[in-house]
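Before the break, one more example. Copy the sequence into your notebook; we will annotate it together after we see the structure.
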Amino acid sequence: MDINLTPVLRQRMGSYPRTRGRYNSSELYFINNGSTTPEQWMNPKEKDMKQILLMWGGTGMHNQIQALLGQYNCEKKVEFVYKDIVLVAKADCLPPDRLDEVWELKTSDKKMNKSKPWQDHQVKLYCTMFKKEHGLIYQPLQDDNGLYLKHLKTVDRDDVFFEKELEKLYQFHLEVEKLW
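Here is what the structure looks like once it is written out:
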């Protein structure tokens, strides 16, 4: 007899209800460049099965890599309060032997030659939020010779950029509040 795990997977990897005044740093690029409207943020569309399976595979890869790097320095969360909102970030790795770095792992079903603008944006936010000078973006890759983290980009901390992004987010928040 077959067992259908789809409902459990949908529940685990699907969209969650929003929390008033709480924003995720990984969404800030799309919010601040206008790709995500307040209405879309309030009511995110349901993910299709292809998206869910890609996320699930990426989560598995993250977990495996983080186990190799040591769980003690992975998946560290920080909350940054600005006025009456909170910006949340979760770093993939804060390497204890490189105290001025925060690492972000980007999984993909395709080998990437460079990071994407939204990834650069996210890691630049992390630099300020985690009080690190540099953010490094890596893609976990494997081949017949082994497993490695391919360096895609390094971004530097920029607190002025961070403040400007927070102010844009706050203006977005004021529009969300009208819908709440």
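The chain has six helices and six strands. The longest helix spans residues 49-69. Try to locate both features in your own notes.
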